Amino acid sequence: MSDQLYLTFDIGGTTIKYSLIDQQRQLSHGGRCPTEHNQGGHILQQLLKITADYQTQHELSGIGVSTAGIVGAAGQIQYAGPTIPGYQGTPIKAALEKQSGLPVLVVNDVDAALLGEQLAGAAQGKQTVYCVALGTGIGGAYLDHGQLLNGAHATANSLGYTLYDPATKTNYEQRASTLTLDHQLAQLGISVPAAFDRARRSEPPFVTLITDWATEVATGLANIILLFDPEILLIGGAVSQQGDFLLGLLNRALEPLLPPNLCKTELCVTQLADKAQLFGAVAKFYN
């Protein structure tokens, strides 16, 4: 049997990344292009153009698409926030299948990050995994014995909207996203990675700022652990590159929030960084 070759896309708010991936799960011939704020349906046009270009040079076996937004049962964008204008209703799966003649998978980006980590990263060999993506907002994904659980209306795991506080009129992501931390640190003229470096050296006020932020993050993680009891809880997003230092902060913040000796879930950071979605978009082709 000839080597299976897939084309995989990762659609974010500003950039479309794409790559080939082979049977050995190796990425190659990758590139990226801007979303152009999806003017005139630019995103779907780019997917179709890039696919056509690859098909003239390679024999593909399938296409995977990771995308921001809620993905409907027909592989269309069921719901999209203001980050990508005019995206809601985009028939990604139908349009790509019609043009290419290939099977097409379309997966929400946080789901894709989790599937990617299970295929080739920190969640390999694990069957019950929860993934929390910390970034501009906060997204969640839940894999239960190999099945993604998205709820009756595909809106489950909308973590960012939870934990609403009437006193401050803020929800979880408005207090605990990396963007919120970034805004706090910008007032001091410092980036998130630089502030973590200072906190590692126990420099004020960065220890307090980073610790307080980690405590906000932990309030959401505690609920996930108590509700779902996953084998591992994956922390994704760029801040996951803070590794063991971040995990230490979160584990300490979780201690007073959980009953002693009850929870066995292990916190881990993702391993594949910004490539997780590229792997996850095509993960089901490897099952």
UniProtKB/TrEMBL annotation:
Domain of life: Bacteria
Signal sequence range: none
InterPro entries: ATPase_NBD (IPR043129), ROK (IPR000600)
Protein family per UniProt: Belongs to the ROK (NagC/XylR) family.
Name the record gives this protein: ROK family protein
UniProt organism field: Loigolactobacillus binensis
